């Protein structure tokens, strides 16, 4: 398969890239290209121009600023995955990213690019939802912050305007005393998840759930924060009946229709089992280190 004809432009600054987007309504940003190029090859995307941001200075940095991991638009999945500094403050990023496709793709694909691509089964957008993160975008009118809860509109559709580019993603660090866990189920290693769940949990001195954040992907047209399941856990002591109740409540978020990979009922079954596993793991206050 070959992509449709397009014009290629190598941007030298964020302002330069934004100008090209404003002047060419059919233009798209390309960084790693691991999602966009296959979509073009299958004629699922047909941009008139690709604006390459790969050489823009400063966009390949990872920083920990004001309680958040700040990921530049050119940071590769693999760099974020292997960062010991990031793992020390927000281990769920590594736990999730090791499930993104395969190592060669993680060496090229960018985490911010995955967020902007907004595949409903992708791990990185879900982690942005789970951690209550946000992206910073720049357009002709300047920069603005888009919270994760407002970012994802539908499968492969975001609130980023066509003449804006995302320059960074911000993932708040793990709260003191909290644990986290991530699990997904896919048909083969490296495939998109049929269902995936992430949990951030803090237990108080009485052994009750003090803080609970739950999110899932692969189950609907966007990644979902499982707020009703969180409410079922807050203030409770962990036991099987409490976990079963939270897992049952979470089932209402599974709206993906039956397809060739799984039925809606099967995704509900997966979500239930995965949720109970990640909550139990996170409640142990241990960050599972992927191998």
Kindly report the CATH topology of the largest domain. Answer: Uridine Diphospho-n-acetylenolpyruvylglucosamine Reductase, domain 3
Gyration radius from CA atoms, angstroms = 19 Å
DSSP strand content: 25-35%
In the residues, how many domains can be counted? 3
State the secondary-structure class: alpha+beta
Please write the CATH class name of the largest domain.
Answer: Alpha Beta
The global form is globular
Indicate the percent of residues in helices: 25-40%
Per CATH, the architecture of the largest domain is: 2-Layer Sandwich
Major sheet strand order: 4-5-10-6-7
- What's the pLDDT, averaged over the residues? 95
Number of H/I helices: 12
Structural overview:
This protein has 291 residues and is an alpha+beta fold. The protein has 3 domains: 7-52, Uridine Diphospho-n-acetylenolpyruvylglucosamine Reductase, domain 2; 62-172, Uridine Diphospho-n-acetylenolpyruvylglucosamine Reductase, domain 3; 179-283, 2-Layer Sandwich (Enolase-like, domain 1), CATH 3.30.390. Helix content is 33%, strand content 25%. The protein is built from 12 helices and 14 strands. The strands form 4 sheets. Strands 4-5-10-6-7 form a 5-stranded antiparallel beta sheet. A 4-stranded antiparallel beta sheet has the order 11-12-13-14, sandwiched between helices. β6 and β7 (142-147) form a beta hairpin. It is globular. It starts with 6 loop residues before the first strand and ends in an 8-residue tail after the last helix.
């Amino acid at each position: 398969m070959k992509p449709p004809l397009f014009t290629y432009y190598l941007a030298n600054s964020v302002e330069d890239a934004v100008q090209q987007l404003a002047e060419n309504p059919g233009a798209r940003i390309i960084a790693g290209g691991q999602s966009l190029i296959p979509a073009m090859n299958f004629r699922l995307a047909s941009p008139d121009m690709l604006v390459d941001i790969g050489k823009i200075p400063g966009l390949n940095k990872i920083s920990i600023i004001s309680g958040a991991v700040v990921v530049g638009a050119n940071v590769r999945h693999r760099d974020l995955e292997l960062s010991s500094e990031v793992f020390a403050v927000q281990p769920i990023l590594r736990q999730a990213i090791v499930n993104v496709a395969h190592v060669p793709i993680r060496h090229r694909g960018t985490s911010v690019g995955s967020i902007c691509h907004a595949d409903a089964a992708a791990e990185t957008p879900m982690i942005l939802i789970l951690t209550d993160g946000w992206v910073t975008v720049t357009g002709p009118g300047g920069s603005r912050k888009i919270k994760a809860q407002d970012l994802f509109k539908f499968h492969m559709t975001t609130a980023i305007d066509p003449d804006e580019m995302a320059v960074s993603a911000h993932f708040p660090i793990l709260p003191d005393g909290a644990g986290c866990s991530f699990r997904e189920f896919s048909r083969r290693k490296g495939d998109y998840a049929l269902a995936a769940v992430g949990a951030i949990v803090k237990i108080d001195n009485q052994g009750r759930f003090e803080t609970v954040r739950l999110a899932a992907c692969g189950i609907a047209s966007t990644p979902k924060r499982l707020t009703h399941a969180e409410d079922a856990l807050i203030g409770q002591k962990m036991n099987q009946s409490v976990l079963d109740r939270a897992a049952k409540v979470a089932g209402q978020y599974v709206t993906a229709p039956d397809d060739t990979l799984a039925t809606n009922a099967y995704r509900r079954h997966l979500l239930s089992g995965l949720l109970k596993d990640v909550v139990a793991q996170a409640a142990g206050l241990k960050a599972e280190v992927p191998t």
